[in-house]
Amino acid sequence: MRRFALLPILVVLALLAASCGGSTSTSGAGSSAGASVAPASAPLFVTIDADPGSGQWKQAETLLDKFPGKQKLLDAITGELTKQGVSYEQDIKPALGPEVDIAVLGLEEGSRDVVAMVQPADKAKLQALLAKVEAKDPSSKAVSTEYKGWTLVSDKQSSLDRFKAEADKGALADDATFQEAMAKESGDALVKAYANGAALNQLVDQVAAQAGSACTGGTAGTVKLRSISGAVSVESDGVRVQARMRSDGATSSGGASTAKLLDEIPAGALAVLAFHGTDQFTQAFDQLQGCRAQVQQGLGAIESLLGVKLEELGALFANDAALYVRAGTPIPEVTLISHQSDPQAALATIDKLARNLGGFAGAGAPRDTTIDGTPVKEIVVGGRVSIFYAALSDKVVVTDSRTGFEDLLRSGGSKLKDDPAFKSAQEASGMPSDTPFFFYVDIQDSLSLVESLVQLAGADIPPDIDANLRPLRSFVYYSSGPAGEVDLNLFLELQ
Fold first, then answer.
1. Cβ neighbour number for residue 304 with a 10 Å cutoff
2. Residue of 144, 231, 216 lying closest to 181 (CA atoms)
3. What is the Cα–Cα distance from 30 to 49, expressed in whole angstroms?
C-alpha cells in the first residue's frame, strides 16, 4: 500500500502547485468517467479532479489568494516535487488526464488490491513519470496495462489482472448501490468517494469475530450500512466536506431538533456543541448489560468513581443539550444547558458528580448560594474557580460564570439565532435550524480571544501565522436527514 500511495500524492501536490494558473482549460470534473470502467465489485472507489483548469481548481485558487502565505506554500510544494525528481509541467501534467481514480478491489486482509486509473495525455510521459518515481524510491515499483481506453497502474501485476477480470463482469456505474449512493453527489467536486456498505459490514463482523466480541445483544447489530459516499468541494466562501450514510434498520430520531437551543444560548458564543439525544442516547447504556464480566467490572469501577450509574449519566443528555464557550474574565465562560423531563432528578445526579469528582479536583463540598435571587449550588476548584449548577425551569445549567447564569435568567437579550457571526456561518454552511446536531466555532473572534490571552502571558503570535489565520471566519459541522439517510456536513467559512 505504501509503495503505491506516492503517485496520487504527487498528483494532488502538483495540482496545488499548478492552481496558480498556466492552464487555459475550462472543463470541469463532471461525474466520474472511471466508474463506467471500474468493476462493480470494488468496495471502495475514489475519483480526483485532475484538471487544474476546472472550475473547482480555479475556485481553490481564488480562496488561496486570501492567504498571505500562499506563495510560500506553493514554493514548498514545488520544492517537495523537486526532491522527488519531478516537475509539474514537464513530468506530471502531460502524464495525467482530466481525472485520477483509485479502486480498492477488496477489504479483507490479503485481498486489498489497489489500482489507479488514468487517461494520460501522453502515455510515454506517464511511463517516464513512473520510472522517475521508482528511480527515486525503488520500493515504489509500479506496473501498468491498458483497459478500455484507460491506463491502469498498480504495485503488482496480479492486481491489474484481477481488476480486468472483475470489470468484465460489470461496471461500478451500473451497480444499483453505487447509483443510489452517488445520486446526490455533485459532479463539481475536487474529490468524490464511495464505500459499499455490505463490504464494510462484512469487514466489521470479521474483525469482531477475530477479536472476540466483548458484548452481545442490543440493537446496534441490526443497523446495516448500504453505502457511504462523500465529496470535498470548494465554494465561493469556503470549503465543504460532505458524507452521506445510507443504512437499513436505523431507529428514527423522532424529529429531533436543536432549534429550541438557538433561542436560549446567548449571543457571542465562540464555540457551541448542541444535540438532541432522544431515547437512542440512553439505549446505548442498556446494550452494555450484555457485555462480558470483565467489561461489566470495568464499567462498575467507572460508576464507583463517578458516584452515579451510567444510566443516570446518560439521562442528563437524553434531550436538548448544549455546551458553549463565550469570552470571559479572567477565563472564558463555559456553560452546559440540558433540558430535562425531571430537572430535580438531573440536579441530584449532578450533585453526586460534584461531590465525588470535586475531591479529585481539589474542590470543597458544594455550598448553597444565589445568583439574581435564584438558588444555585457552588463548588470552588483550586480555591480560585467557581462552578455553579442549578435547575432552571425545564433544564439544568452548569457554568463557571455568574454571567452565564444571569444571561440565561434574562428573558430578553440577544440570542445565538440573532448573532451576526452565527447567522453568517449558518447561511454559508447551509445548516438548517432543525438539525439534530451541530458544532460551531466562531474562528474570527476566537482568534482575538486567543491573541489577548497570549499577550496577557507576555507573548505574541508570530505575525505571519496571525496573518494567515485571519481569513478563517467560522467552522460548522452538522447532521441532517431522516433515519437511514444521514448527511454529515463540514464547512470552513473564509472571508
1. 10
2. 231
3. 9
Please check whether residue 260 is in contact with residue 393, taking contact to mean a CB–CB distance below 8 angstroms: no
Residue 328: phi and psi, rounded to 5, are -155, 170
**DSSP string covering 258-304:** -HHHHTTSBTTEEEEEEEE-HHHHHHHHHHGGGB-HHHHHHHHHHHH
- Enter the C-alpha cell of residue 355: 461531590
Digitized pLDDT (tens) for each residue of the chain, 495 residues in all:
444 555 566 566 666 666 655 444 433 333 589 999 999 999 999 999 888 888 998 999 999 999 999 888 888 888 888 887 888 888 888 888 888 999 999 888 777 899 999 998 889 988 988 888 788 777 778 899 999 999 999 988 999 999 999 999 999 999 999 999 998 876 789 999 999 999 998 888 777 676 555 555 544 457 788 999 999 999 999 999 999 999 887 766 556 788 889 999 999 999 999 998 755 555 555 555 555 565 667 777 777 777 778 888 888 888 899 999 999 877 889 999 999 999 999 999 998 888 877 666 667 788 999 998 899 999 888 777 889 999 988 999 999 999 988 888 877 788 999 999 999 999 999 999 889 899 999 999 998 888 887 877 788 888 888 899 999 999 999 998 877 888 999 999 998
Q: What is the pTM of this model?
A: 0.87
